[in-house]
Amino acid sequence: HPRRTGPGGVMPVAGFVRTTVHRSVGTALGLVSPVIDGVAQAVLDQIDLSAVTDRVIDSLDAEAVAARVAGALDTRAVGSAVVADVDVTPILTEVQTQLGPIAQDIIKDLDLEPAVQQVIDNLDLMPIVEQVIHRLDLEPVVRRVIVQLNLPELITETISELNMGKVVRAAVKRPVSAPRG
Asked: How far apart are CA 52 and CA 50, in angstroms?
C-alpha cells in the first residue's frame, strides 16, 4: 500500500477506519449472549484486536477510500462528522450473528489458541466495512466543511497578499517586443 500522510492522505483515513473497525469489533464482541460470556471473555482476553484491525485495513483499497473521503478537505473534520453520522448497528448485528456459530465451536473444543485463530479466520468484516463505506452520505459532511472554509474570506486574503500594484507596475515597465514576421 502507498503510505502518504497529511491532509487527504491515506494514513489519516486508514487510521480513522482502523479506529472505527477496532471499536465496532470490540463492542460487537462485548454483546455475545450470556450463555457464552465466560468463553467469550477468555477469547477476548486472547484476541489481538489490532491483528484483526490490521487484517481488515490490509485488505481495504486505501487509495479508493482516501480518494472518496479526503481531497483537499480537513480529514479530521470529515472523520468526526462521519463517525457522528454512521449507524454501527448493522455492523454490530452482523458481527454478533457471525460470532454465534464461532462461539459454539469454541465451547466444544475449549482449546483457546486454535479457537482464537478460528475467530480471526472466520470473522469476515470486509463486506460489512465496504457496505458501511458505500452507505455513507458524505454530501452533508462536505457541505459543512466547505461552509467552514469561508471561501470568500480565503479568496480575498489571497488576492490582497498578491500585491497586485507591484505586478501591474512591473508589467507596464516591461518593454514590448516587436512582432515576429
From this structure: 5
Q: Summarize pLDDT for 39-62 with one digit per residue, the tens.
A: 666 666 777 767 777 776 677 666
Hey, is 93 helix, strand or coil? Answer: helix
d(CA 83, CA 117): 30
Percent of the chain predicted with pLDDT > 70? 47
SS3 28: helix
On whether the CB atoms of residues 120 and 55 are closer than 8 A, the answer is yes
Q: CA-to-CA distance for 164 and 144, rounded, in angstroms?
A: 32
Residue 6 in grid coordinates: 497529511
| End-to-end C-alpha distance for the chain, whole angstroms | 55
Question: Using alpha carbons only, what angle is made at residue 158 by residues 5 and 162, rounded to the nearest 5 degrees?
Answer: 120
Task: Work out the number of other CB atoms within 10 angstroms of the CB of residue 54.
Answer: 14
The residue ranges of every structural domain in the chain are: 10-136
Model confidence at 160, in pLDDT bands (50, 70, 90)?
Answer: low
What's the grid cell of residue 171?
A: 508589467
- Threshold 0.85, pTM exceeds: no
